Amino acid sequence: MDHITLALPQEPADGIAGWAADLVDAMGAPGAGLAVALENLFPPLPSEIILPLTGFAAGQGVISLFAALFWTTLGSVVGAAVLYWIGALVGRERMYAIWAKLPLVKTSDLERTEEWFAKHGTKAVFLGRMVPIFRSLISVPAGLERMPLPTFLALTGLGTLMWNTVLVMSGYWLGDQWDKVGDYVGVLSKIVLVAVVLALAFYIVVRLRSRGTAQHRRPS
């Protein structure tokens, strides 16, 4: 198999792109699947680099386009399934025990989260596959709530296929400019991350204020 020659104006040869290229070079399309599976387990590994790179490899004839889509989707599903089982093994009772020891949260908060997931879990699992960072995290509550495994795998597979197809095909069409995909998706990732941090900060402030108000109203 010929080594993949990449145009990497921003990514060093020994960076994530170089690591992913080495996997594809050594293992072919299954190497891309392995990289994406690891990306699900370790979200800091960016799919916006791995998937367009795989599409570029397909465009260069190193692997077939079908193999690129099949193995990256399979890798995503396998990684999500591992996280699902982590949530399932932790279990509801243990999660409640851990939750009770955390500051600034109440058991009722977790109960409301369970109720929300029961109503909207299928949409969250499906659409979450197309949201950076969230696409990995959503598998844990799915396992915790014991969403039927066939349903989880089907929703994960469909959502992942859509996400992977967009990024793989972008790399396939852009050719040696495949790395530009990461610029746009990276902006989206930052927006989502900032939104989550702000939401968490707002939640903590509200929780502290509510506790302060409750203590102030207590009779001395």
Automatic annotation (TrEMBL):
<dbReference type="GO" id="GO:0005886">
    <property type="term" value="C:plasma membrane"/>
</dbReference>
<dbReference type="Pfam" id="PF09335">
    <property type="entry name" value="VTT_dom"/>
</dbReference>
<dbReference type="InterPro" id="IPR051311">
    <property type="entry name" value="DedA_domain"/>
</dbReference>
<dbReference type="InterPro" id="IPR032816">
    <property type="entry name" value="VTT_dom"/>
</dbReference>
<keyword id="KW-1003">Cell membrane</keyword>
<feature type="transmembrane region" description="Helical">
    <location>
        <begin position="62"/>
        <end position="86"/>
    </location>
</feature>
<protein>
    <submittedName>
        <fullName>DedA family protein</fullName>
    </submittedName>
</protein>
<feature type="transmembrane region" description="Helical">
    <location>
        <begin position="187"/>
        <end position="208"/>
    </location>
</feature>
<keyword id="KW-0472">Membrane</keyword>
<keyword id="KW-1133">Transmembrane helix</keyword>
<comment type="similarity">
    <text>Belongs to the DedA family.</text>
</comment>
<feature type="transmembrane region" description="Helical">
    <location>
        <begin position="152"/>
        <end position="175"/>
    </location>
</feature>
<keyword id="KW-0812">Transmembrane</keyword>
<feature type="domain" description="VTT">
    <location>
        <begin position="45"/>
        <end position="172"/>
    </location>
</feature>
